[in-house]
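Private note to self, pasted from the team thread so I don't lose it. Backbone tokens:
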């Protein structure tokens, strides 16, 4: 190789080395420098985040510790307080920060306002009953509720106390006020209403008169929804607010809920099964005492097919099926008074003996009842026992109430017999199953102690709810109508007292009728006016001198009878 070539080769390789060397050095030095810068930034950022989170955690923990310490102190302080915690109410009445005595007084005042308000139970425009809450002895257990309110936040567990007090303070804590009432009285009031609402459905019924079976067809009408009515009454009382009542003290009004009711079709097979019997003689057993009255044999005098054909022939109000009666050989009257040695009750009313027609009606109906024996659980129906009032039976016209006036009507006066019997039944502590008051007050018994009857529509019924059979004796003579009920003395006999209380007087109006037969300005009273009344009657049971119970017997409304005055023109 020449010297020139050698120099060129060195120069060429030297250039390559120079060209490659800087790049290599630059790469080796820059890259580590860049890595180091990024790492420091990230470390600083992460450290900042950790510090920030730490401070947040410290603040949160500090707040929680502060809250816990504060609430713990608050709970401890509440344990020593003699007042009810903040936010606590009873039946919506705020009792916060009150002592037990203050809270009790506040509740008593409010509850007294709530329970004094009456309820007007109405059906349409023609029927209404004033309901007094005291009639069912409705009451609240105020002491129990106040005690529960006072103990809020005062348990042995501080953590639980904290939780309860915070909830009460922020969201409130309302305590339910437990109530109680006399269910028997409420049922009695509702049953009484259900028997008096106008337009009631009438179920098919039957009774035996002599040797005839009288079947009365039913009629469509309404029936009171008893359970719904009871719920409405109790809900009205429960949801009352004393402040609202004081602002508007009007009586609450509840519409009596009813539903339409179709009468059951006549079931002749069932009726036959109930009345058909073979004749049985009366007898009794002395130890233990049991009385078995006579039973006359009863059977259809025609075939079942003929009887059913009689009912299918036409849609009548009344059907008559002839009966075959086979009398028993020995009756209770043949046994004598030894079977009924104890007088359970008696009641008398007075009548005008000079009024021959009316006196005769009283005697006829009383004689039909006289001697009736009822076995334990057996029901008595006035209309079934007395039967239809007809001229053939000897009834005559006498004064009755009709359309707000006193007029003559067949068998007038026999409501005195049903009312006299009603009082004897009450005093015997027997269960009354059906009874209605008159439209107007009567003269022979106080308002609230009468029982009206109308054959086919209004009946008076009761059950022998005693342990042993009873016998009814009736007598009408010398201006006195008397009923006595005999039986066997029970282990526990109550002394019964009937207490009618007039709650409202309804004034009467005067109607002036032009009368051309009178001199101008002359006035003649054709009919005297009488006030009407609303009466609540209670039955009180005593043993010795101690009152055992006092319950509502009935709520009765008597219309005012207008005065009618004839005026000369």
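Design output:
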């Amino acid at each position: 190789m020449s010297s020139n070539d050698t120099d060129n080769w060195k120069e060429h390789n030297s250039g390559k080395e120079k060209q490659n060397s800087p790049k290599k050095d630059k790469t080796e030095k820059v890259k580590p420098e860049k890595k180091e810068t990024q790492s420091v930034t990230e470390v600083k950022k992460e450290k900042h985040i950790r510090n920030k989170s730490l401070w947040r955690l410290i603040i949160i923990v500090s707040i929680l510790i502060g809250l816990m310490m504060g609430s713990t102190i608050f709970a401890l302080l509440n344990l020593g307080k003699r007042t009810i915690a903040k936010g606590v109410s009873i039946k919506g009445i705020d009792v916060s920060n009150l002592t037990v005595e203050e809270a009790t007084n506040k509740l008593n005042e409010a509850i007294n306002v709530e329970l004094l308000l009456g309820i007007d139970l109405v059906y349409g425009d023609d029927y209404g009953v004033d309901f007094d809450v005291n009639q069912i002895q409705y009451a609240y257990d105020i002491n129990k509720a106040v005690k529960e309110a006072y103990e809020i936040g005062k348990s042995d567990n501080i953590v639980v106390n904290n939780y309860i007090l915070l909830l009460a303070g922020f969201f409130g804590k309302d305590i339910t006020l437990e109530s109680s009432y006399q269910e028997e009285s409420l049922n009695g009031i509702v049953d009484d209403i259900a028997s008096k609402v106008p337009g009631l459905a009438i179920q098919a019924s039957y009774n035996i008169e002599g040797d005839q079976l009288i079947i009365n067809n039913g009629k469509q009408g309404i029936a009171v929804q008893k359970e719904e009515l009871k719920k409405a009454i109790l809900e009205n009382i429960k949801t009352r607010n004393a402040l609202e009542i004081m602002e508007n003290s009007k009586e609450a009004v509840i519409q009596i809920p009813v539903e339409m009711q179709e009468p059951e079709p006549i079931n002749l097979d069932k009726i036959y099964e109930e009345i058909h019997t073979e004749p049985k003689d009366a007898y009794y057993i002395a130890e233990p005492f049991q009385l078995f009255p006579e039973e006359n044999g009863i059977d259809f005098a025609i075939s079942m097919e003929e009887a059913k054909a009689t009912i299918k022939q036409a849609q009548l109000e009344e059907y008559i099926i002839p009966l075959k009666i086979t009398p028993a050989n020995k009756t209770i009257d043949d046994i004598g008074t030894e079977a009924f040695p104890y007088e359970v009750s008696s009641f008398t009313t007075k009548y005008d003996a000079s009024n021959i027609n009316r006196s005769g009606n009283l005697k006829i109906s009383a004689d039909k009842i006289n001697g009736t024996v009822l076995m334990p659980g057996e029901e008595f129906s006035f209309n079934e026992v007395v039967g239809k009032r007809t001229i053939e039976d000897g009834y005559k016209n006498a004064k009755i109430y009709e359309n707000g006036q006193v007029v003559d009507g067949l068998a007038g006066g026999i409501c005195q017999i049903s009312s006299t019997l009603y009082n004897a039944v009450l005093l015997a502590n027997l269960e009354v199953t059906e009874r209605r008051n008159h439209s107007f007050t009567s003269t022979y018994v106080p308002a609230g102690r009468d029982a009206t009857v109308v054959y086919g529509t209004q009946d008076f019924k009761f059950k022998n709810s005693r342990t042993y059979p009873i016998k009814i004796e009736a007598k009408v003579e010398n201006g006195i109508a008397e009923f006595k009920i005999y039986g066997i003395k029970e282990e526990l006999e109550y002394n019964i007292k009937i207490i009618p209380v007039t709650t409202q007087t309804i004034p009467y109006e005067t109607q002036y009728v032009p009368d051309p037969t009178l001199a101008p300005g002359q006035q003649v009273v054709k009919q005297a006016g009488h006030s009407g009344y609303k009466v609540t009657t209670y039955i009180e049971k005593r043993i010795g001198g101690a009152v055992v119970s006092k319950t509502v017997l009935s709520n009765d409304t008597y219309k005012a009878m207008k005065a009618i005055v004839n005026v000369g023109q």
